[in-house]
Design a protein that fits this description.
6-stranded antiparallel β-sheet; Immunoglobulin-like
Length: 490
């Protein structure tokens, strides 16, 4: 069975800045008639988390040491250590890079251990990740390999590690397809058709997408006539531009000339597809709206306040509609927007999406609401709703050297950004923390954040003259807790 590896997170504390090294793993099992079964292990390195050193030829480059150990019980079956280098870039630029290794393994149960190290960090210790792999024996029937998702492919000029069936195939190391990813590309192989059907005998390959109810979606389906041979490659693309958000399966079938299914392979994936809809295009039929959760909200002012609380998770057109049109619109238009908003995000159960968000609104109200501002209107509340709860939350509310501040760190945000931070501070001492700085794109940035958090008057919260004098004698730039919490929030 195919599995997706979780990301590795490891830290090297000897540096003035701490890099959370991230590598993502995926594997598929394929079969070669000449060599037998093999595991194709793909490692994708997050270039933002590696050190990019200047090289003699000019430019800057990252380098990773990758160690792979495959074992059965106490016996090591395969071990290899390779160096993987990123592209040569200009200073302060980064890019992800990737490796692909093939391990010849016969049928059986294996433990796969992977170790990753940043070569440009001296005296660092690699961290490891282990995964159990089951390889089934190849039967005499028609078989289908694991399914590999693909980010790009092209005709191959020179054969390399990524070459398959005459194409350079770049893996997509994820099961998640976000808004804007309009094509689902994949690669697989069909085996034993020449043995079962006869050489160059006709058969049919069918690929489709199935929803959570195991229903085939006709708009995401392809049928192709094939001719049998030892290995029949499948490199195809399905249009998922109109596929709503949800959980799905990609299904490959092989059918014989009698149209009987003789082999099946499936792989799960998640789709996020938030489509913007103009307010004049969101009229919901009466029979749907009247039986929906939205019809239970009959006060225009109250409903508008609820819709306004959706701003933290709204798209651009949705925000514009809420801000500029819905307050003066009639109740039915508000209800239609309300229903449509959650239908786009959870077509199978729009009300469930709303109820889950309603609970989060309550959480941020309890945690961040003030006497004059609702929780969702505060910066901390908005970030919590938009990006999800942080993995770590460093709170320093009573240090006389600083304004009260908090640093939130995310391993992964709701929109799949990795290793991100938010710094909030409270200059009014009212409990309403303002977002001062973050490394998230399209959010507020202030590169004087260290100075601004430190500019709190020393007299505030200084209990007496001796405490005040002690504060003035301290050097706030030495042993810097603020900087340490930003770069090392774990």
């Amino acid at each position: 069975m195919k599995r997706i590896f979780l990301p590795l997170l490891f830290m090297f504390l000897s540096l003035p800045q701490v890099f959370a090294l991230r590598a993502f793993f995926d594997y598929q099992v394929f079969y070669s008639p000449e060599q037998g079964s093999y595991v194709e292990l793909v490692t994708s390195f997050d270039g933002r988390t590696f050190v990019w050193n200047e090289i003699a030829e000019g430019g800057f480059q990252a380098s990773a040491e990758l160690t792979i150990i495959a074992s059965q019980g106490d016996k090591i079956i395969d071990v290899r250590k390779i160096v993987v280098t990123g592209p040569v870039l200009e200073k302060d630029k980064t890019a992800d890079f990737m490796s692909l290794e093939r391990l010849l393994l016969t049928a059986g149960n294996y433990k796969l251990e992977v170790l990753v190290k940043d070569i440009n960090i001296l005296e660092s210790t690699p961290d490891s990740f282990t995964q159990n792999i089951d390889i089934l024996p190849m039967s005499e029937d028609v078989n289908i390999s694991d399914i590999s998702f693909v980010s790009a492919f092209r005709l191959s000029d020179d054969e390399n590690a990524f070459t398959k069936s005459g194409y350079d195939v770049i893996p997509y190391v994820s099961n998640y397809f976000p808004t804007g990813a309009d094509a689902l590309m994949f690669y697989g192989e069909i085996y034993n058709t020449s043995k079962v059907f006869g050489l160059e005998a006709p058969f049919v390959s069918s690929v489709c997408v199935m929803d959570a109810n195991a229903s085939i979606l006709d708009e995401c389906r392809k049928i192709k006539r094939e001719k049998s041979q030892e290995v029949v490659p499948l490199l195809q693309s399905l249009d998922i531009s109109k596929l709503p958000s949800g959980e799905y399966k990609l299904r490959i079938e092989v059918r014989n000339k009698e149209n009987v299914v003789v082999a099946v392979k499936e792989r799960n994936f998640t789709r996020s597809n938030i489509q913007e809809v103009a307010v004049d295009k969101m009229e919901v039929p009466n029979e749907i709206l009247n039986n929906s959760f939205a019809s239970g909200y009959r006060n225009q002012d109250s409903l508008y306040n609820i819709l306004a609380s959706h701003l933290p998770i709204s798209g651009g057109l949705e925000r514009s509609t809420i801000d500029n049109q819905l307050k003066s619109s009639d109740l039915r238009t508000q209800q239609s927007f309300f229903y449509t908003f959650w239908y786009k995000r959870n077509p199978s159960d729009p009300e469930l999406g709303w109820r889950e968000y309603e609970k989060k609104l309550f959480e941020v109200q309890q945690a961040f609401g003030t006497r004059v501002k609702a929780g969702w209107k505060t910066d901390r509340g908005r970030v919590y709703l938009q990006y999800g709860p942080p993995n770590t939350r460093a709170m320093r509310h009573n240090n006389p050297d600083y304004f009260p501040f908090e640093i939130w760190h995310y391993y992964e945000t709701n929109d799949k950004l990795h290793d991100r931070r938010f710094l909030f501070y409270d200059t009014s001492l009212s409990g309403d923390f303002e977002l001062l700085h973050t490394d998230v794109p399209n959010e507020v940035k202030n590169f004087e954040w260290k100075t601004l958090v430190r500019t709190r008057p020393l007299a505030i919260n200084s209990g007496d003259a001796s405490r005040k004098n002690a504060n003035q004698m301290r050097d706030p730039y030495s042993g810097d807790e603020l900087e340490d919490l930003w770069f090392n929030p774990y």
